[in-house]
Design goal:
Oligomer: single chain
Distance between the termini: 52 Å
Shape: globular
Number of domains: 2
Structural class: alpha+beta
C-alpha cells in the first residue's frame, strides 16, 4: 500500500466522527461535509509522520474550520429575523441508515440543534467538543484562543443553556408517530379540541423564512397550545401531502405539493404530547435534501 493510500484509509476511519462533530457545530450536513473535506485537504499537505494523534489532530482541524464558518455566518447576519433552523437529516420511517446513525449518535435531535444555534461560536465549540466528544479543555483552548479556565467556562455556559432549553423527547419512535398522526388528523379535520389534546401547554412552533414566503400563517416562532393550534389550522390544505419520515431520528413529516417537496416538519414528543415543532420550508435548502415523494401519505 502506498503512503497516500494508507493516509486516505486512516482518514476514512475517522470520517464518521468528524462528520458528527461538524454537523453538531454547523447544523448542516452540506457544510459539515465541506468542513471534513477541508480537513482532508489540509492533512494531505501535512507531514503525517509528525502527527502523534491523528484523530485528535483531525478533530482540532474540523473544529477550527467550523468555528470560522460560524463566525462568518454571525458576521454576515445570515439570519436576521429569528432563529436559524438547522438542516435536518431525513431518513426512511422504518429505520436510520448506518451513515446517519453515526451522525445521530448521542441524540442530536432538532431540539438540541436549535438550542446550539443560540450559543456563541466559541460556546458551541467548547460544549460540543468537550461534552459530546470528550476532548479535554487544554486541547480545545487553543482552537478558541482562550485559556483552559476560560474554555471550561464557555462549555459550562453552553451546558446550562442546553439543559435549560432542550426538550428531552420520548424515545419510542412508534409512540411518537401515533402522536404526530393524531396532530395531522386534527389539523386536517379542523378539530381544534383534538389539536389541544396532543399539544403540550408550553408547545413552541418555529418556521423559517421559507414558510413565511410560501404564505403559511405562521411567524418565526409561536408559543402556547392555543396559538399553535390556531397556527396548525392554517396548514389544513397541506396536511394531505404529508409522508412519514425520520427527522433526526424522530418521527416527522415531509410535506409534498404534488411531487414537489414543500416542507419538512420535525416533532419533539414528550409524555405523548408535542412540545416542539420545527418547520423547514426554504426552497433552496429543501432542494439540497434530495427528497422524493415515495411512500403513502399520512
Amino acid at each position: 500500500m502506498t503512503e497516500p493510500d494508507w493516509l486516505a484509509e486512516r482518514f476514512e476511519e475517522h470520517r464518521p466522527r468528524l462528520r458528527a462533530v461538524a454537523y453538531r457545530m454547523l447544523g448542516s450536513m452540506t457544510e459539515a461535509d465541506d468542513a471534513v473535506q477541508d480537513a482532508w485537504l489540509r492533512l494531505a499537505r501535512t507531514d503525517a509522520d509528525a502527527i502523534d494523534n491523528l484523530g485528535g489532530w483531525l478533530t482540532t482541524v474540523v473544529g477550527r474550520v467550523c468555528l470560522d464558518v460560524l463566525r462568518t455566518r454571525k458576521a454576515r447576519r445570515e439570519d436576521p429575523i429569528g432563529v436559524h433552523l438547522p438542516e435536518p437529516l431525513i431518513g426512511d420511517p422504518d429505520g436510520v441508515d448506518p451513515e446517519q446513525a453515526a451522525v445521530l449518535a448521542d441524540s442530536v435531535g432538532l431540539a438540541l440543534l436549535v438550542v446550539l444555534e443560540t450559543l456563541t461560536p466559541a460556546e458551541r465549540l467548547a460544549f460540543v467538543l468537550h461534552d459530546t466528544f470528550g476532548l479535554p479543555f487544554d486541547e480545545i483552548a487553543p482552537i478558541v484562543g482562550r485559556s483552559t479556565t476560560a474554555t471550561r467556562q464557555l462549555a459550562s455556559r453552553g451546558r446550562r443553556r442546553v439543559r435549560g432549553a432542550a426538550a428531552s423527547p420520548d424515545v419510542d419512535v412508534d409512540r411518537q408517530r401515533v402522536v404526530v398522526h393524531a396532530f395531522v388528523a386534527a389539523a386536517r379535520d379542523g378539530d381544534f379540541a383534538a389539536l389541544l389534546r396532543v399539544l403540550d401547554p408550553d408547545v413552541v412552533i418555529r418556521a423559517d423564512a421559507g414558510a413565511m414566503r410560501a404564505g403559511a400563517a405562521v411567524s418565526r416562532e409561536v408559543r402556547g397550545a392555543q396559538a399553535v393550534a390556531e397556527t396548525a389550522l392554517g396548514f389544513r390544505r397541506f396536511a394531505a401531502g404529508g409522508r412519514d419520515a425520520l427527522v433526526n431520528g424522530a418521527a416527522g413529516l415531509v410535506v409534498f405539493a404534488g411531487d414537489r417537496p414543500y416542507a419538512v416538519l420535525g416533532f419533539t414528543v414528550r409524555g405523548d404530547r408535542i412540545v416542539e415543532i420545527d418547520i423547514l420550508a426554504d426552497p433552496a435548502r429543501i432542494e439540497r435534501l434530495g427528497l422524493t415523494s415515495a411512500g403513502p401519505t399520512v
